[in-house]
């Protein structure tokens, strides 16, 4: 299975809003815990270590870009 980087959602904005809304009202620590749990749940759903490694590498490469937008 190859890592899919194109949106698989019929409504990507709704998916984004769902993630943002899930964090509403949480402390920074709770928000980080939610992100960790979500990553582990979705990684388990994927069930492919190579895809997970590719996704982690892609996410890490995007970190400097994200820091610049703060």
Walk me through this protein's architecture.
The chain contains 3 helices and no strands. The model has no long low-confidence stretch (mean pLDDT 92). The protein is globular and about 35 Å long. The protein has helices at residues 12-23, 28-46, 49-68. The N and C termini lie far apart (34 Å). The protein has 70 residues and is mostly helical.
Q: Roughly how many Å apart are the termini? A: 34 Å
Structure class:
mainly alpha
State the share of residues found in helices, binned by percent: over 70%
Uncertain regions spanning at least 5 consecutive residues: none
- Write down the Rg: 14 Å
Gross morphology: globular
Strand content: under 5%
Strand count? 0
**Sheet with the most strands, sense and barrel status:** none
Number of helices: 3
Mean pLDDT comes to 92
What is the N-to-C succession of helices and strands? HHH
């Amino acid at each position: 299975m190859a890592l899919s980087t194109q949106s698989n959602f019929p409504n990507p904005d709704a998916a984004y809003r769902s993630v943002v809304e899930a964090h509403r009202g949480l402390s920074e620590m709770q928000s980080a815990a939610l992100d960790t749990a979500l990553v582990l749940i979705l990684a388990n759903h994927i069930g492919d270590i190579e895809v997970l490694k590719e996704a982690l590498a892609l996410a890490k490469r995007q970190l400097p870009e994200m820091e610049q937008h703060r």
